[in-house]
Amino acid sequence: MSLLAAVEASLKHGTLYKASNAFVQWTDAGYIRAAASVADKRCSTGHQLSPIDGRLIAIKDNICTTGLPTTCASNSLKGFQSPYESTVVKKLRAAGAIICGKTNLDEFGMGSHSTNSASGAVNQGTGGELSVGGSSGGSAIAVASQQCWASIGTDTGGSIRLPAAYTGTVGFKPSYGMISRHGVIAYANSLDTVGILSRSVKDVQQVFAITRGHDTWDPTSLTEETRTKLTSAAKARPRRPNLRIGVPVEYNVAEINPTIRTIWQQALERVISAGHEVVSISLPSTRLALSTYYVLAPAEASSNLAKYDGVKYGNAASKPKLEANVLFATGRGQNLGDEVKRRILLGSFTLSASAFDNYFLQAQKVRRSVQQDFNAVFGIPNVLQESSAANPEGVDLLLTPTAPSFPPKLASLAHYTPLKSYGDDVLTVPASLAGLPVISIPTRTDTFGLDTPPGSVGLQLIGQYGNDDFVLDTAGQLETLLWNR
């Protein structure tokens, strides 16, 4: 299919799936067609800027763009136009990609089902009954419904991978610091990671090749020297004729849907039949990972979102109370959603003098234990941590389910408690705490001869820190194995 035909098809799907509420803002269709025509001429004359030249790519609405508003799906930023563009968007434009719009999300990235949005809930677009996951739900369903070729999201505790699992797309969270966060509106700085969603591993690799790299504007961006060290460490991993895949016993939680567990087991059998080794490993600290995440992330959020007071930054209250000490509270109360307020309150408490030692400090210690557990099972060391050493008997990668359950119906979420919703992240959070590269790959349930509920089952492949290319290359092999391609 030519670029022009692909663009027209995406615009058509944008109309067909408008009810999915994937986008909060589309780029003008005339501009998209004109940009696609120019890109098509470049490609036909051998002057293609990159493999993604002329491709439609959507951007999650917590990533700054100069041509479109950036609202984080929050009334506090309604109508906000960023004066600068994020590094990731600059790189995509320079490579010829066409930014087709901004995608819907849970407000400020806080949620697991893309329902906590001032722009309304996102849905699967097939009657609107199923969750798309969160918080990058708009980015995921935009790809799944072919409204764009690929999309950029953010992953703090599973916000790319959970939507990928629910929508049958490929979702990649790189190692922390691989892709610049400059221009990404912060939720939790030490966890926020820019990532990619598309319909194949190959497409993800092409976007990653463009967007990765050191950025002086991002203090958390890995330097070129560090990237070289990571590449050298990856090349020095134990050489074996086949892969050694680890299965963490702690990930086999009771909450996993029996059908998902069966698919996981049968996928592992396929891995074995392809000549690879599957071994059981233990990551004991991961049992504490979910509770640790929901101490650390809200703590950072409470600090990051303090600026949205409606006076110095963000929209003011529509009906402000001018009495002493209530002006800020009124604006935040009117413009921030319930889940955001809940996490700000939780984070403020854990950072308070009376709770800091028992909550925040202890959570940081558990986070280090989670990182050390991962380091202990991988065959290559984490070169950023002196305590990490090479383990000749270690595994190359881990393979687990991405989500413990199938996508729930949106109507059922009304009966969810916050804790139940947080539990959907139980299998994605551990790798986020350790900053590891992870990719969620969809399975074809009919391949396994199973009668499954509507939706998709994602399996996630987890690698050692900085081992992103190896994770992606292996994911391509696994994709073929699972889809019989």
Task: Annotate the secondary structure layout.
Blueprint: H1 3-16, E1 23-26, H2 29-44, E2 56-60, H3 87-94, E3 98-103, H4 137-144, E4 150-155, H5 161-167, E5 170-173, E6 193-198, H6 201-211, H7 224-235, E7 244-248, H8 258-273, E8 277-281, H9 289-304, H10 327-335, H11 338-350, H12 357-377, E9 397-401, H13 418-422, H14 429-434, E10 438-443, E11 457-462, H15 468-483
Parallel strand pairs: 2-3, 2-4, 7-8, 7-9
Antiparallel strand pairs: 1-3, 4-6, 5-6, 5-10, 9-11, 10-11
Q: Quick summary of this structure?
A:
The chain is α/β, with parallel strands linked by helices and 485 residues long.
Q: Your description of this structure?
A:
Keywords: ATP-binding, Ligase, Mitochondrion, Nucleotide-binding, Protein biosynthesis. Allows the formation of correctly charged Gln-tRNA(Gln) through the transamidation of misacylated Glu-tRNA(Gln) in the mitochondria. The reaction takes place in the presence of glutamine and ATP through an activated gamma-phospho-Glu-tRNA(Gln). It is an enzyme of class 6 (ligase). Its EC number is 6.3.5.7. Helices cover 37% and strands 12% of the residues. The protein has an eleven-stranded mixed beta sheet, sandwiched between helices. β2, α3 and β3 form a beta-alpha-beta unit. It has 485 residues and is of the alpha/beta class. The relative contact order is 0.13. It has a domain of 222 residues: Amidase signature (AS) domain (Amidase signature (AS) enzymes, Alpha-Beta Complex), CATH 3.90.1300. It starts with a helix and ends with a helix.
